[in-house]
Amino acid sequence: MKIGIDIRVLARGVRTGVEEYVINLLSHLFLIESEIQYKLFYNAYRKNELSFEWPLRRNVELKNFKIPNRLFFVSARYFNQPKIDRLLGGVDAYFNPHFFGAPVSSRCRKIMTVHDLSFEYFPEFFSWRKRLWQKFLMRTKKEARSADKIIAVSQSTKSDLVNLYGINEEKISVIYSGVGEQFQPISFEQNQPPAAGDIKRKYNLPSDFILYFGAIEPRKNIVGLINAFEVLREKHRIKLVVAGDKGWLYRDIFKTAKESKYRNDIVFTGFIEEKDKPCLYALAKLFVYPSFFEGFGFPPLEAMAGGVPTIVSNSSSLPEVVGESALMIDPNNIDELSWAMEMALTDSELRKYLIKKGIEQAKKFSWDECAKKTLAVLKQ
């Protein structure tokens, strides 16, 4: 069997949730059945050079193209060309782990992963360019309807596909993503690398802090987190660390932090290197992820796997991902979030419970299992 896989999402060289999904899934997928031949569609006029071992495997072939993606999307949108399976030299099935436009010929099955439909629920959280991109070029609804099979990363996303796009639920398989094995509780007394002191200096981290990690954008409700932190800070001497890259419409977030009376207690780290993430989580007293909407949500799982008490919103996919292993709050209720942070910081029995249950919950999410279930769908 020959399977084509779209890896255009990796061209920018960033690692948001979608990139994490693609990188981890493929790393495990290619190891399952060596007789299956995979052809990777990697296209962009300018793209990041891949540093993975995939192309070195005998059953994986990297197909590099330099078609400008804007031109490609326009051609796909209005002419349904070029047929990607033909560009790849022929495949039985084409897997698109994002919802980029992907024309294929009638004899090729198309499978796609849908991560979330946040742009349908909260268009105001996206830049006008992003909204135009989604509406006129991405054509998510049409792509979803044209796919033979859809993988949804959560039951929440499956429900959205059924309710918003009218997709037959029998066409959709819910396959949860995994959590990396590198995310484990770290005992700094054992001097495990990377050294805590090095990470603190590298990112200017304080001694005691609450952590948010993710994209810096409105959907993540960082303004609400800062407001809740201000209420908490009136009673407790602790700092807030906001880690991650800028997304879009981030200016109000930085403005809110700059105007805060506790602005000196709010630290923005910027980009976090992948190898530093486990130590970053381990250094935090508490992890808070008050996002308005998530298709899955990697950071809470990573934090829980690392033994960090975690707070999340009670919205979209987050309750099904964290189960009963994290505190859940209304993302619109600042006082509730502030109270939850205080309880998670000061109640020792609650902290022990959250740490124990969080580690247990994270173990339920395996990339090996995700890859096996994905391959089953690809072979149907």
**Structural class by SSE content:** alpha/beta
CATH class of the largest domain: Alpha Beta
Radius of gyration: 21 Å
Total number of β-strand segments? 13
Order of helices and strands: EHEEHHEEHHHEHEHEHEHEHEHEHEHHH
CATH topology descriptor of the largest domain? Rossmann fold
Mean pLDDT: 92
Pfam families: Glyco_transf_4, Glycos_transf_1
Domain Glycosyltransferase subfamily 4-like N-terminal: 17-179
Keywords: Transferase
Organism: Candidatus Portnoybacteria bacterium CG_4_10_14_0_2_um_filter_43_36
Descriptive account of the structure:
GO terms for molecular function: glycosyltransferase activity. Residues 206-360 form the Glycosyl transferase family domain. This is Glycosyltransferase family 1 protein. Keywords: Transferase. The chain contains 16 helices and 13 strands. By secondary structure, it is α/β, with parallel strands linked by helices. It folds into two domains: 2-178 and 366-379, Rossmann fold (3-Layer(aba) Sandwich), CATH 3.40.50.2000; 188-362, Glycogen Phosphorylase B (Rossmann fold), CATH 3.40.50.2000. Strand 11 (286-289), helix 12 and strand 12 form a beta-alpha-beta unit.
